[in-house]
Structures are given as C-alpha cells and as structure tokens.
Amino acid sequence: MRKSYSSLLFAALVLLAAPAHALERVILGYSGVGSGEEVHHLGKQFGLFKKHGLDVEIVYIPGGSTVVQSMVSGEIQFGRGSPSEVVSANLAGFPLKIISALINKFVYTFVTPPSITKPADLKGKNVAISRFGSGSDFITRMALKSWGLDPGKDVTILQVGNSPDRLAAIAGGRVHGSILSLSQTPRAKKLGLRVLADLSEIDADYPQGVLYVTTALIDKRPDLIRSFMRAYIEAIAMFKTNRPAAYAVIEKNTGLKDRAEIEEYHSVLTKNFLLSYPLPTVAGIKTVLDDLGARNPKIRELKPEELIDTRFLKELKDSGFVK
User: Fold this and answer.
1) Which pairing describes strands 126-129 and 54-60: parallel, antiparallel, or unpaired?
2) Tally of structural domains, the chain
3) Which of 201, 235, 252 is the last residue of a domain?
4) Domain boundary residue among 201, 236, 263?
5) What are phi and psi of 29, to 5 degrees?
6) pLDDT tens column, 127-180
7) Which residues of the chain have pLDDT under 50?
8) What CA–CA distance (Å, rounded) separates 62 from 217?
9) Segment 100-116, tens digit of pLDDT
10) Residue 164, domain CATH
C-alpha cells in the first residue's frame, strides 16, 4: 500500500509540465484555516495553476478585513475567506463579488473545557474569535444567539487568532470556548476538551471558503479569472480523488502530523462538505445578510444577487469542464 501511495504521489508531482510561454503572476491572499484552503495549496504545489498559464503566489493574511485592504490597494488579485468581509467591503463602497464557495454549510465545532457542559454555562464567560468582523466572529455570534445568549453582553468576545491559536487559548484556560475548524477538532478531543456543538447540524445554507474578486477585474480580465477557475476546479477534483497528494498538502499546511487525524480530516471534509461544483448560492448569501443586517440596518439594502457572480463556474459547467 505504501508503495502504491508513493507511486500515486510521484505521478501527481510530475503529471504537469509548465507551459513554454511566460506565466502570468497573480497573488491570492487568504485568511483563516479549516474551510478547504488546502485546495489552492494543492493547485500550486502540483502545478495546476502553471498548467493554465498562471504563476500564483499564495499569501496568508491574518484577518479577512486585511485581505480586503490588500485588494483595495491592488496588492492582490484574488481573495479567499469569509462572505462577511465581502459584505463589509460592498457596504464601504468597494465592490467585490464572490465567484466560488467551496463549502455551503457551517463546518465548525464549538469547543469548550470539560467544565462547560451546556451552552447556558457560557454566560459570564469569555469566548475567542480571530478578529472582529471576521467569519469566526459572525458564526460565533450566530451560535450564541441561537442558544439564547446575547453576544457582548452575556459573553465576552476576545480577539485571539486563527483556529490553532484559539485551541491553545481554550487548552490553556484563557478562554472558555470557541468555534474551531474541522482540522483542529481531532486535536481538541485528544486534549480532553468538549465538543459542545457540531455547527454543521444547523439547517441553513452558509458559504465558506469563498473566493472573491473586484468587479474591475471581472470587467477587465475575465480571461484571467477563467484560467484561475479552471485550475481551481481541477485542484478540487485532485484533492478529492488523489489521497496521497491531498494528505501531503494537509500535513504541510494544517499542522496535522498524525496519519489517522489527516485521514479523518480528509474523509470528513471531502465526503460531507467540499463541493465539486462550488457555486455560491443566493440562499447562502441571504443567511449572511439576514444575520449581519440585524446589527446594521444598512446591510439590509444589499441584495444577495449583487454579491455573487456565477458566470465563470456556469461556463465551465456548460462546457463540460465540470461534471
């Protein structure tokens, strides 16, 4: 079996040769972990972007708002993160559109120390998010409200960092709970922490791992977006079907080292969450707008259809590129 896996991994590494013509350099900025970001890492590591004429630099930028700022300044062409940052950008007069959503449901667990046995126990306690206005902030507030708790009043919300940072904060006793990404849940269980809730059980469309661009890029360089999306779709398919390649990328980019944890993460992500045809939906964007609009009435003026552009994925579907 090990020999077979090694052969498959070697084949994945050499199956694509860089095109003879010059590659176009673009930058993808992403924030957060645990919503399928391994897909773009795989696309770069195994030459899929180069196959379609692109030299893609992938940059981790803490906080979705910072990704948007980098896009406003023209430093990056593609952003990947949470739909909430796209909403905030549009509200501020900087039009972004979501062109892909790898996941269309909540993919987090809410983890606490063993002393917290029910959501009501969180009253008067601290919970962690990455940054205010981020996807983790949005989902945490949504979960707390669903449990009858008033975020910011019944619970103190602290900015701590991404999922690994938040896991360390719970384990170290600095906070009493947080949502954690799929890749961190096995670690939390090993540490003896409690999975208080599986948020994927919430019956609502919710886009995660969204890819977004400026409307200016859509208007001026649709060819660039098409090339990127072809590579992206191929990367999704490869991540789902070529386990040795996927495991290598997971180990390199998530911090997971235990083989059983890697296999579990890949199995759950690909079978339950990761979409082969990652089309953003109006229903999913409406979930975001409805919740954010409860705190900021101006958000209610935005329409879900205005925040997504599905033409590129639909073109690939119509052409038979996506099965």
Assistant:
1) unpaired
2) 2
3) 201
4) 201
5) -105, 135
6) 999 888 777 888 899 899 989 999 989 999 999 988 889 999 999 999 999 999
7) 1-3, 14, 16-19
8) 23
9) 999 998 888 999 999 99
10) 3.40.190.10
